[in-house]
Amino acid sequence: VIDAREPVLAKYKDELAVLAGCGKPLLPVLNFVAQPGHGEERWREALARLGLHALVRFDSVAPPIDGERRLYESLALLLEQSRAKLQRLIEDHEAQAAARLSEGNRLIAELLVDVAACRRGVAAQPELERGAIRELHDAVRAREQRCVEALLRLYGFRAQDAATADLPLLDGRWGDDLFNPETLKQLGVKIGGGMAAGAAAGAGVDLMVGGITLGAAALLGAIAGGGAQTARHYGSRLLGKLKGQRELTVDDAVLRLLALRQRQLLAALAARGHAAMDAIRLDAADDKAWREGKLPEALQRCRAHPDWSSLNPAARLQDGERQAALEALQAELGST
Protein backbone atom coordinates (compact mmCIF):
# COMPACT_ATOMS: atom_id res chain seq x y z
CA VAL A 1 0.00 0.00 0.00
CA ILE A 2 1.47 3.33 -1.10
CA ASP A 3 0.61 6.70 0.40
CA ALA A 4 0.14 8.72 -2.79
CA ARG A 5 0.68 11.95 -0.87
CA GLU A 6 4.33 11.02 -0.21
CA PRO A 7 7.06 12.10 -2.66
CA VAL A 8 8.69 9.34 -4.71
CA LEU A 9 11.93 9.08 -2.75
CA ALA A 10 14.92 6.97 -3.78
CA LYS A 11 14.46 4.64 -0.79
CA TYR A 12 10.93 3.82 -1.93
CA LYS A 13 12.18 3.01 -5.43
CA ASP A 14 14.81 0.69 -3.93
CA GLU A 15 12.18 -1.09 -1.81
CA LEU A 16 9.94 -1.57 -4.83
CA ALA A 17 12.86 -2.88 -6.91
CA VAL A 18 13.65 -5.47 -4.21
CA LEU A 19 9.98 -6.55 -4.05
CA ALA A 20 9.76 -6.75 -7.85
CA GLY A 21 12.79 -9.05 -7.87
CA CYS A 22 11.27 -11.57 -5.44
CA GLY A 23 9.39 -13.46 -8.13
CA LYS A 24 6.03 -12.91 -6.45
CA PRO A 25 2.96 -11.21 -7.95
CA LEU A 26 2.78 -7.57 -6.89
CA LEU A 27 -0.31 -5.33 -6.90
CA PRO A 28 0.49 -1.78 -5.72
CA VAL A 29 -2.44 -0.05 -4.00
CA LEU A 30 -2.41 3.75 -4.17
CA ASN A 31 -3.99 5.11 -0.99
CA PHE A 32 -5.21 8.65 -0.17
CA VAL A 33 -5.85 9.42 -3.84
CA ALA A 34 -9.05 11.31 -2.93
CA GLN A 35 -7.04 13.81 -0.86
CA PRO A 36 -5.90 17.13 -2.37
CA GLY A 37 -2.27 17.38 -3.43
CA HIS A 38 -1.67 13.67 -3.96
CA GLY A 39 1.05 12.57 -6.38
CA GLU A 40 -0.71 9.73 -8.20
CA GLU A 41 0.85 10.49 -11.58
CA ARG A 42 4.37 10.57 -10.13
CA TRP A 43 3.82 7.18 -8.50
CA ARG A 44 2.32 5.71 -11.67
CA GLU A 45 5.41 6.77 -13.62
CA ALA A 46 7.81 5.37 -10.99
CA LEU A 47 5.95 2.04 -10.83
CA ALA A 48 5.87 1.76 -14.62
CA ARG A 49 9.67 2.16 -14.78
CA LEU A 50 9.89 -0.90 -12.49
CA GLY A 51 7.54 -2.89 -14.72
CA LEU A 52 4.59 -2.57 -12.31
CA HIS A 53 1.84 -1.43 -14.66
CA ALA A 54 -1.10 -3.06 -12.85
CA LEU A 55 -2.23 -1.10 -9.80
CA VAL A 56 -5.38 -0.21 -7.87
CA ARG A 57 -6.61 3.14 -6.54
CA PHE A 58 -8.20 2.67 -3.12
CA ASP A 59 -8.66 5.58 -0.75
CA SER A 60 -9.10 4.28 2.82
CA VAL A 61 -10.68 7.56 3.95
CA ALA A 62 -13.33 7.77 1.23
CA PRO A 63 -13.34 4.38 -0.51
CA PRO A 64 -15.33 4.17 -3.76
CA ILE A 65 -18.58 2.21 -3.62
CA ASP A 66 -17.13 -0.66 -5.65
CA GLY A 67 -13.59 -0.19 -4.34
CA GLU A 68 -13.26 -3.51 -2.50
CA ARG A 69 -14.72 -5.46 -5.41
CA ARG A 70 -12.24 -3.92 -7.86
CA LEU A 71 -9.36 -4.57 -5.47
CA TYR A 72 -10.18 -8.27 -5.10
CA GLU A 73 -10.94 -8.68 -8.80
CA SER A 74 -7.52 -7.22 -9.61
CA LEU A 75 -5.93 -9.66 -7.16
CA ALA A 76 -7.80 -12.51 -8.86
CA LEU A 77 -6.11 -11.60 -12.15
CA LEU A 78 -2.71 -12.06 -10.51
CA LEU A 79 -3.68 -15.07 -8.37
CA GLU A 80 -5.76 -17.21 -10.69
CA GLN A 81 -5.66 -20.19 -8.31
CA SER A 82 -7.33 -18.08 -5.62
CA ARG A 83 -10.08 -16.66 -7.83
CA ALA A 84 -12.86 -18.75 -6.25
CA LYS A 85 -11.85 -17.77 -2.72
CA LEU A 86 -11.64 -14.11 -3.65
CA GLN A 87 -15.08 -14.28 -5.29
CA ARG A 88 -16.56 -15.74 -2.09
CA LEU A 89 -14.88 -12.93 -0.15
CA ILE A 90 -16.43 -10.33 -2.49
CA GLU A 91 -19.90 -11.84 -2.09
CA ASP A 92 -19.56 -12.06 1.70
CA HIS A 93 -18.49 -8.42 2.03
CA GLU A 94 -21.32 -7.25 -0.21
CA ALA A 95 -23.84 -9.29 1.79
CA GLN A 96 -22.54 -7.72 5.01
CA ALA A 97 -22.84 -4.23 3.50
CA ALA A 98 -26.44 -4.91 2.41
CA ALA A 99 -27.30 -6.25 5.89
CA ARG A 100 -25.83 -3.15 7.57
CA LEU A 101 -27.79 -0.88 5.25
CA SER A 102 -31.03 -2.75 5.98
CA GLU A 103 -30.39 -2.60 9.73
CA GLY A 104 -29.62 1.12 9.42
CA ASN A 105 -32.97 1.71 7.73
CA ARG A 106 -34.65 -0.26 10.54
CA LEU A 107 -33.02 1.99 13.15
CA ILE A 108 -34.26 5.08 11.29
CA ALA A 109 -37.75 3.59 10.97
CA GLU A 110 -37.79 2.94 14.74
CA LEU A 111 -36.86 6.58 15.36
CA LEU A 112 -39.60 7.89 13.07
CA VAL A 113 -42.27 5.62 14.56
CA ASP A 114 -41.28 6.65 18.09
CA VAL A 115 -41.40 10.36 17.27
CA ALA A 116 -44.57 10.26 15.13
CA ALA A 117 -46.47 8.40 17.84
CA CYS A 118 -45.05 10.49 20.68
CA ARG A 119 -47.76 12.41 22.51
CA ARG A 120 -47.97 14.70 25.51
CA GLY A 121 -51.22 15.62 27.23
CA VAL A 122 -51.47 18.92 29.07
CA ALA A 123 -54.13 21.23 30.45
CA ALA A 124 -54.90 24.25 28.27
CA GLN A 125 -52.85 26.69 30.35
CA PRO A 126 -49.99 28.69 28.75
CA GLU A 127 -47.35 27.91 31.37
CA LEU A 128 -48.15 24.19 31.41
CA GLU A 129 -48.18 24.14 27.61
CA ARG A 130 -44.72 25.72 27.41
CA GLY A 131 -43.38 23.15 29.84
CA ALA A 132 -44.89 20.31 27.81
CA ILE A 133 -43.32 21.68 24.63
CA ARG A 134 -39.87 21.86 26.27
CA GLU A 135 -40.21 18.32 27.56
CA LEU A 136 -41.26 17.08 24.12
CA HIS A 137 -38.28 18.84 22.50
CA ASP A 138 -35.86 17.24 24.96
CA ALA A 139 -37.37 13.79 24.40
CA VAL A 140 -37.12 14.05 20.60
CA ARG A 141 -33.54 15.38 20.66
CA ALA A 142 -32.46 12.58 23.00
CA ARG A 143 -34.19 9.98 20.81
CA GLU A 144 -32.43 11.26 17.69
CA GLN A 145 -29.09 11.12 19.49
CA ARG A 146 -29.71 7.48 20.42
CA CYS A 147 -30.38 6.73 16.76
CA VAL A 148 -27.14 8.49 15.72
CA GLU A 149 -25.15 6.48 18.26
CA ALA A 150 -26.77 3.22 17.16
CA LEU A 151 -25.89 3.92 13.50
CA LEU A 152 -22.29 4.72 14.46
CA ARG A 153 -22.02 1.45 16.41
CA LEU A 154 -23.52 -0.44 13.49
CA TYR A 155 -20.68 0.77 11.23
CA GLY A 156 -17.98 0.53 13.89
CA PHE A 157 -17.36 4.25 14.39
CA ARG A 158 -16.93 6.30 17.54
CA ALA A 159 -19.53 8.62 19.06
CA GLN A 160 -17.43 11.69 18.11
CA ASP A 161 -17.32 10.69 14.43
CA ALA A 162 -20.63 12.47 13.71
CA ALA A 163 -21.53 16.01 14.73
CA THR A 164 -25.21 16.91 14.50
CA ALA A 165 -26.42 20.47 14.35
CA ASP A 166 -29.09 21.41 16.88
CA LEU A 167 -32.46 20.05 15.79
CA PRO A 168 -34.61 23.11 14.97
CA LEU A 169 -37.80 21.86 16.58
CA LEU A 170 -41.03 23.73 16.10
CA ASP A 171 -43.52 24.30 18.89
CA GLY A 172 -45.23 21.02 18.13
CA ARG A 173 -48.76 20.76 16.93
CA TRP A 174 -51.99 20.75 18.86
CA GLY A 175 -53.99 18.26 16.88
CA ASP A 176 -57.08 16.12 17.00
CA ASP A 177 -55.13 12.95 16.29
CA LEU A 178 -57.48 11.17 18.64
CA PHE A 179 -60.08 11.66 15.94
CA ASN A 180 -58.12 10.89 12.79
CA PRO A 181 -59.39 8.17 10.40
CA GLU A 182 -57.06 5.48 11.80
CA THR A 183 -58.31 6.00 15.36
CA LEU A 184 -61.92 6.20 14.23
CA LYS A 185 -61.52 2.90 12.40
CA GLN A 186 -60.37 1.28 15.63
CA LEU A 187 -63.36 2.76 17.43
CA GLY A 188 -65.71 1.31 14.84
CA VAL A 189 -66.49 4.65 13.22
CA LYS A 190 -66.86 4.55 9.44
CA ILE A 191 -66.12 7.87 7.81
CA GLY A 192 -69.15 8.72 5.69
CA GLY A 193 -70.88 5.50 6.76
CA GLY A 194 -72.23 6.11 10.25
CA MET A 195 -71.25 4.39 13.51
CA ALA A 196 -70.59 0.81 14.42
CA ALA A 197 -72.92 -1.14 16.69
CA GLY A 198 -73.07 0.44 20.11
CA ALA A 199 -72.93 4.04 18.91
CA ALA A 200 -75.87 6.15 19.92
CA ALA A 201 -77.16 9.42 18.61
CA GLY A 202 -76.59 12.36 20.92
CA ALA A 203 -75.70 15.96 21.26
CA GLY A 204 -72.76 17.55 23.00
CA VAL A 205 -69.42 19.01 22.09
CA ASP A 206 -69.00 18.49 18.35
CA LEU A 207 -65.67 17.22 17.07
CA MET A 208 -64.66 17.88 13.48
CA VAL A 209 -63.15 14.98 11.56
CA GLY A 210 -62.34 15.72 7.94
CA GLY A 211 -65.42 17.89 7.60
CA ILE A 212 -67.74 15.41 9.34
CA THR A 213 -69.27 16.40 12.68
CA LEU A 214 -69.58 13.71 15.35
CA GLY A 215 -71.51 14.31 18.53
CA ALA A 216 -69.53 13.62 21.68
CA ALA A 217 -72.19 11.27 23.03
CA ALA A 218 -72.20 9.36 19.76
CA LEU A 219 -68.43 8.96 19.85
CA LEU A 220 -68.61 7.79 23.47
CA GLY A 221 -71.17 5.25 22.32
CA ALA A 222 -68.75 4.04 19.66
CA ILE A 223 -66.08 3.53 22.30
CA ALA A 224 -68.50 1.62 24.51
CA GLY A 225 -69.54 -0.54 21.57
CA GLY A 226 -65.92 -1.33 20.84
CA GLY A 227 -65.48 -3.29 24.05
CA ALA A 228 -63.47 -2.96 27.23
CA GLN A 229 -60.06 -2.88 25.54
CA THR A 230 -61.09 -0.02 23.24
CA ALA A 231 -62.55 1.86 26.20
CA ARG A 232 -59.31 1.48 28.14
CA HIS A 233 -57.19 2.72 25.24
CA TYR A 234 -59.32 5.67 24.16
CA GLY A 235 -61.83 6.44 26.89
CA SER A 236 -59.39 8.39 29.06
CA ARG A 237 -58.09 10.35 26.08
CA LEU A 238 -61.59 11.30 24.98
CA LEU A 239 -62.57 12.24 28.52
CA GLY A 240 -59.50 14.45 28.81
CA LYS A 241 -60.34 16.04 25.47
CA LEU A 242 -63.84 16.92 26.60
CA LYS A 243 -62.45 18.34 29.87
CA GLY A 244 -60.21 20.81 28.06
CA GLN A 245 -56.99 18.76 27.94
CA ARG A 246 -54.82 19.26 24.88
CA GLU A 247 -52.57 16.74 23.15
CA LEU A 248 -49.21 17.78 21.77
CA THR A 249 -47.50 15.88 18.96
CA VAL A 250 -44.48 16.50 16.73
CA ASP A 251 -44.88 18.49 13.52
CA ASP A 252 -44.63 16.74 10.16
CA ALA A 253 -41.74 19.09 9.30
CA VAL A 254 -39.72 17.67 12.19
CA LEU A 255 -40.40 14.10 11.02
CA ARG A 256 -39.14 15.08 7.57
CA LEU A 257 -35.99 16.64 9.02
CA LEU A 258 -35.28 13.60 11.18
CA ALA A 259 -35.64 11.30 8.17
CA LEU A 260 -33.42 13.52 6.01
CA ARG A 261 -30.63 13.79 8.60
CA GLN A 262 -30.54 10.13 9.50
CA ARG A 263 -30.65 9.01 5.86
CA GLN A 264 -27.78 11.41 5.16
CA LEU A 265 -25.82 9.96 8.08
CA LEU A 266 -26.48 6.38 6.96
CA ALA A 267 -25.28 7.15 3.43
CA ALA A 268 -22.17 8.89 4.78
CA LEU A 269 -21.30 5.97 7.07
CA ALA A 270 -21.77 3.45 4.27
CA ALA A 271 -19.21 5.38 2.17
CA ARG A 272 -16.82 6.27 5.00
CA GLY A 273 -13.48 4.58 5.58
CA HIS A 274 -12.13 3.92 9.05
CA ALA A 275 -9.05 6.02 8.29
CA ALA A 276 -11.22 9.16 8.22
CA MET A 277 -10.34 11.70 10.92
CA ASP A 278 -12.91 14.50 10.43
CA ALA A 279 -16.36 14.27 11.99
CA ILE A 280 -19.35 13.93 9.67
CA ARG A 281 -21.42 17.12 9.60
CA LEU A 282 -25.16 16.68 9.25
CA ASP A 283 -26.63 19.77 7.62
CA ALA A 284 -29.30 20.15 4.94
CA ALA A 285 -29.87 17.07 2.82
CA ASP A 286 -31.06 16.96 -0.77
CA ASP A 287 -33.72 14.26 -0.72
CA LYS A 288 -36.74 15.49 -2.63
CA ALA A 289 -39.00 12.57 -1.74
CA TRP A 290 -38.70 13.29 1.98
CA ARG A 291 -38.45 17.06 1.65
CA GLU A 292 -41.55 17.58 -0.47
CA GLY A 293 -43.36 14.28 -0.99
CA LYS A 294 -46.23 12.87 1.01
CA LEU A 295 -45.21 11.24 4.27
CA PRO A 296 -45.47 7.44 4.14
CA GLU A 297 -48.85 6.00 5.07
CA ALA A 298 -47.23 3.82 7.75
CA LEU A 299 -45.95 6.97 9.45
CA GLN A 300 -49.35 8.63 9.28
CA ARG A 301 -50.88 5.62 11.01
CA CYS A 302 -48.51 6.04 13.94
CA ARG A 303 -50.25 9.30 14.86
CA ALA A 304 -53.26 7.32 16.12
CA HIS A 305 -51.16 4.88 18.17
CA PRO A 306 -49.44 6.56 21.13
CA ASP A 307 -48.77 3.10 22.54
CA TRP A 308 -46.38 2.48 19.63
CA SER A 309 -43.84 5.01 20.91
CA SER A 310 -41.12 4.13 23.42
CA LEU A 311 -41.28 7.81 24.43
CA ASN A 312 -44.76 7.32 25.87
CA PRO A 313 -45.73 5.43 29.04
CA ALA A 314 -47.26 1.94 28.68
CA ALA A 315 -45.70 1.46 25.25
CA ARG A 316 -46.46 -1.81 23.44
CA LEU A 317 -43.41 -2.13 21.20
CA GLN A 318 -44.09 -5.75 20.21
CA ASP A 319 -47.60 -5.01 18.96
CA GLY A 320 -48.19 -6.85 15.67
CA GLU A 321 -49.58 -3.79 13.86
CA ARG A 322 -46.65 -1.71 15.05
CA GLN A 323 -44.22 -4.29 13.69
CA ALA A 324 -46.07 -4.29 10.35
CA ALA A 325 -45.94 -0.48 10.15
CA LEU A 326 -42.25 -0.57 11.09
CA GLU A 327 -41.46 -3.09 8.34
CA ALA A 328 -43.40 -1.06 5.76
CA LEU A 329 -41.55 2.11 6.73
CA GLN A 330 -38.19 0.29 6.67
CA ALA A 331 -38.95 -0.96 3.15
CA GLU A 332 -39.90 2.54 2.01
CA LEU A 333 -36.69 4.00 3.46
CA GLY A 334 -34.71 1.36 1.60
CA SER A 335 -36.41 2.06 -1.72
CA THR A 336 -36.09 5.86 -1.79
The outline comes out as: elongated
Class per helix and strand makeup = mainly alpha
- Total number of strands: 10
What is the number of independent domains? 3
- Nearest-integer average pLDDT: 75
**Terminal Cα span:** 37 Å
Number of helices: 12
> What is the H/E string?
EHEHEHHEHEEHEEHHEHEHHH
- Rg is 29 Å
How many strands, what sense, and barrel or not for the largest sheet?
3 strands, parallel
Instruction: State the strand order across the main sheet.
Output: 1-2-3
Q: Give the proportion of residues in helices.
A: 40-55%
Point out poorly predicted stretches.
174-180, 186-216
Provide the β-strand percentage band. 5-15%
Structure characteristics:
336 residues, 3-stranded parallel beta sheet, mainly alpha, 52% helix
Short description:
It contains twelve helices and ten strands. Strands 1-2-3 form a three-stranded parallel β-sheet, with helices on one face. Strands 4-9-6 form a three-stranded antiparallel β-sheet. The chain has three domains: 2-91, no CATH class; 102-119 and 126-170 and 250-335, no CATH class; 177-248, no CATH class.
Write a structural description.
By secondary structure, the chain is mainly alpha-helical. The chain folds into three domains: 2-91, no CATH class; 102-119 and 126-170 and 250-335, no CATH class; 177-248, no CATH class. 52% of the residues lie in helices and 9% in strands. The strands form four sheets. A three-stranded parallel beta sheet has the order 1-2-3, with helices on one face. Strands 4-9-6 form a three-stranded antiparallel beta sheet. Helix 2 links the parallel strand 2 and strand 3 (56-57). Helix 3 packs antiparallel against helix 4, helix 4 (83-117) runs antiparallel to helix 9 (252-270) and helix 7 packs antiparallel against helix 8. The protein starts with a strand and ends with a helix.
